[in-house]
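HUMAN: Now follow token order:
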Amino acid sequence: MKVMIRKNAAGELTAYVPKKDLEEPITDCQKPELWGGVVTLANGWRLELPEMPSDTRLPITVEARRLEG
């Protein structure tokens, strides 16, 4: 699914899923860097993000995979 990753006005990372019209803060990252790991959103969704360079500029739209459980 397409997911836009960006920083909000408070400097927090957020994920926006256009297909669901859902925007949630990213509350947990599996890896120290954002890319190539699993992140958890405030609503409990877990998304697997693609590998990207650590200096990737935000905002960016990526193809993420939603994990069950």
Notes: DSSP finds no helices and seven strands in the chain. The chain has one domain: 2-67. The domain at 2-67 is CATH 2.40.50.240 (OB fold (Dihydrolipoamide Acetyltransferase, E2P)).
